[in-house]
Each structure stands twice: as structure tokens, then as C-alpha cells.
Write a structure and sequence with these properties.
Shape: elongated
Radius of gyration: 22 Å
Structural class: mainly alpha
């Protein structure tokens, strides 16, 4: 099992490296304009000139997938960042305060966990409106409760450690103990969870974009590319299959690396 995991690290890392490069430097992969099409080349299947084929307007699907990686991946990363920061702050306050404040915070967290995450995303988008940034914030808010619960558990565990008690006895102030001793030692499981959550965020961002809440057309996004290809599913399968395979590859790569990091953090 360990050999299989180690064997999958290299291709997973290569997939993530390629996706990141496409998101921040799409010019490394191609120079084609994702918004410009040629009607004489509409609905061409994948081939040498167009590895992912062309769409109904003659636009290169590979170019649109590459340029669509930027809003999709950036929105997922921002969403996880929002979830980590908000969840960590809530969990740190709850684990430190204890008592009634802890009880109130955790009851609110349990209510958020009881609501289906995708429904919560749609509820937040109903308030914020459509757009890539709004989608990122909505996905981050939906995942914050999970991070707050993990952070609270880790803060309570670390607070009972001998070195934390020794620091308090030596005269270290409460903020110093929290920031220097408690928070760094409680952040390990959060890092592994954040890696796993990026895969979920990519899927959620794509699903929300599929429903039309992402960037407005003709801007490419992975989810909107799949939605745009639905009317041509029978005659031009590549319009939905190619972006879908890219999403699957990225999510599987992120999840594999996340499981590896989580296993290592648990064995330490």
C-alpha cells in the first residue's frame, strides 16, 4: 500500500504542477485566443491541430480549458484560504474560551454542519450574487465549520500538553502561549485537511459554475465549459468529456497528495 502511494506521488505532483502553471501562466502551453473562433473549423474532433477539438463556434477547446483553469483553481484556493482562516479563528476562540462561549460557538458550528454544504453555498450566493469571487467566498464559508471543529479539538489537546503548561508556569502571557505554542502545534491536521479540501473546492466551484453562478460567458471556466457542451453531447462528446477529465485528474491528484500528507501527520 505504501508503495502504491509513493508511486502515485510523482504523477499527482506533475498534474498539480501543470494545472498551476496553466492557471498562472497559460502562455506556456499555447498562444491561441480562447475567445476567438473560426466557423469553418466548428465542432472538429480532437486531433493534431486541436488536441481537445473545437466547439460550436470554432474555438479551440484546449485553449479554453487552459485559460479556464485560472478562475477555477484560483477560486478553489481562495475558498480554502477563507475556510482555513475563518475556521481556525472560530476554533481557536472556542477551544480557548471554553464554558458558555464554547458551547454557543459549537452549537452554531453543528447547525452549519447539519446543512448540506452545496445548499449552503447556494444560500450564500443568493446574498452575494454571481461571480468568481463570490463563488470562492461562498465555498469557503460552507467549509469553515469543518476547520473550526478540527481546530477546537487540536487546541484542547495541545493546551493539556506539558510544554504548554511549562510555558505558562514560566510566566509566558496567554497570547504568547496561544500564538507560539498552541497554534503552531495544532496546525498540522489543518494543513492536511486543507489539501484534501482543495479537491472538494474544485468540484464545488465547477458545479456552481455549471449552474451559471460563475464568471459570465464567454469567459471560460471548467464548469461552464461542461454546461455549454451539454446540447452537443451526442454529436460532440469532447466538449464535455475533455474538461471533465481535467477536473477528475486534478481532484484525484489533490486528494492523493492530501491523503499522503494526512497519513504522515497522523504517524508523527
Amino acid at each position: 500500500m505504501r508503495f502504491v502511494r509513493r508511486l502515485g506521488i510523482v504523477p499527482s505532483a506533475l498534474v498539480l504542477l501543470a494545472a498551476t502553471a496553466a492557471a498562472f501562466a497559460p502562455g506556456l502551453f499555447l498562444s491561441a485566443d480562447p475567445l476567438r473562433g473560426d466557423v469553418t473549423e466548428r465542432l472538429l474532433p480532437p486531433g493534431a491541430g486541436h488536441p481537445f477539438g473545437t466547439d460550436e463556434l470554432g474555438r479551440d477547446v484546449f485553449a479554453r480549458v487552459v485559460h479556464g483553469s485560472a478562475p477555477s483553481i484560483q477560486a478553489a484556493v481562495i475558498a480554502v484560504g477563507v475556510a482555513v482562516l475563518a475556521g481556525s479563528a472560530i476554533g481557536l476562540v472556542a477551544g480557548t474560551a471554553r464554558g458558555r462561549l464554547d458551547g454557543l460557538i459549537m452549537r452554531a458550528v453543528e447547525i452549519l454542519l447539519a446543512v448540506p454544504s452545496f445548499l449552503l453555498v447556494l444560500m450564500v450566493l443568493a446574498v452575494l450574487g454571481p461571480g468568481t469571487r463570490q463563488v470562492a467566498v461562498a465555498v469557503g464559508v460552507s467549509a469553515a465549520a469543518v476547520f473550526s471543529r478540527i481546530m477546537r479539538t487540536e487546541v484542547i489537546r495541545v493546551r493539556g500538553s506539558g510544554y504548554v503548561e511549562a510555558a505558562a508556569v514560566c510566566g509566558a502571557g496567554r497570547p504568547t502561549v496561544l500564538m507560539v505554542h498552541v497554534l503552531p502545534n495544532a496546525a498540522g491536521p489543518l494543513a492536511a485537511l486543507a489539501t484534501l479540501e482543495i479537491g472538494n473546492a474544485v468540484l464545488t466551484v465547477a458545479a456552481v459554475s455549471f449552474l451559471g453562478f460563475g464568471a459570465p460567458p464567454p469567459a471560460p471556466e471548467w464548469g461552464s465549459l461542461i454546461a455549454a457542451g451539454r446540447p452537443f453531447l451526442a454529436s460532440a462528446w469532447w466538449l464535455t468529456t475533455m474538461p471533465g477529465l481535467v477536473i477528475v485528474a486534478v481532484v484525484l491528484a489533490v486528494n492523493h497528495l492530501g491523503h499522503v500528507l494526512r497519513t504522515r501527520s497522523e504517524t508523527r
